[in-house]
Amino acid sequence: MKVVCVLGSPRSKGNSSFLARRICDRVRSSGAKVKIFSLNKISYRGCQGCMACKDKLERCGVDDDLSQVLEAVRLSDCLILATPVYYGDVSSQLKAFIDRTFSFLKPDFPSNPMPSRLAPGKKMVFILTQGQPDEDQFADIFPRYDSFFRLYGFSTTLIRVCGVFNPGDVENHPEALQWADETAERLIKS
Question: pTM (2 decimals)?
Answer without folding.
Answer: 0.96
